[in-house]
Amino acid sequence: MRTIIQVLMLGALPGLVIASGKHAGGHQEHGSHAMSHMDDQTHEVAAGRPGNPVRVDRTITVLMNDTMRFEPASMSFKAGETIRFEVMNTGKITHEMVIGTLDELKEHADMMEKMPGMAHTEPNMISLAPGEQGDLVWKFDNTGTFDFACLIPGHLEAGMSGRIKIE
């Protein structure tokens, strides 16, 4: 398990993005990801809430690529687990990973269609430029089946989505 010093040092590495931050009524410019929430219940969605990076139960590597796919495309965890997703964009265009229910993702995708080019700063999402990698730390509080997707216009429609089962 990483110590808080190691986690904070990771934020200083070039090309590494740690997902977290505030959503002040609108999307923020790319690069505004900051590590400001640990176990912040104000950003809870159906799938859970931001996890504490020093209390991670498992680390899963997720690759995003220009075939509009995630690897892996399906995952299973236990309720209460905090997962560190080490997300890597191996493609040549920007991709993102957003966790939520299918309805939440579709609603947000509609908003993104109306505001292309805007980047996310919510803790349940991470947007990465080509070649970037970053961490998204999430605590899955609720059982059920949830989704993750890239909400950049056209990417979800091209099949860039996956499923997370919480037991």
Give a verbal description of the structure.
With 167 residues, this protein is mainly β. Helix content is 12%, strand content 34%. It is built from 2 helices and 11 strands, in the order H-E-E-E-E-E-E-E-H-E-E-E-E. The strands form 2 sheets. Strands 1, 2, 3, 4, 6 and 9 form a 6-stranded mixed β-sheet that branches. The two termini are 24 Å apart.
Helix share bin: 10-25%
What are the segments in which pLDDT stays under 50 over at least 5 consecutive residues?
1-42
Element string (H = helix, E = strand): HEEEEEEEHEEEE
Classify the secondary structure makeup into a structural class. mainly beta
Beta-strand percent range: 25-35%
Q: End-to-end span in angstroms?
A: 24 Å
The rounded Rg comes to 14 Å
Overall spatial form? globular
In short:
This protein has 167 residues and is mostly beta strands. The chain contains two helices and eleven strands; from the N terminus they run αβββββββαββββ.
Write the layout of secondary structure elements.
Elements: H1 4-10, E1 16-18, E2 49-50, E3 58-65, E4 69-71, E5 74-77, E6 82-89, E7 95-100, H2 102-114, E8 125-128, E9 133-139, E10 144-149, E11 161-166
Parallel strand pairs: 1-9, 3-6, 5-11
Antiparallel strand pairs: 2-9, 3-4, 6-9, 7-8, 7-10, 10-11
Provide keyphrases for this structure.
five-stranded mixed sheet, 2 helices, 167 residues, six-stranded mixed sheet, 11 strands, 12% helix, 34% strand, disordered N terminus, mainly beta, single chain
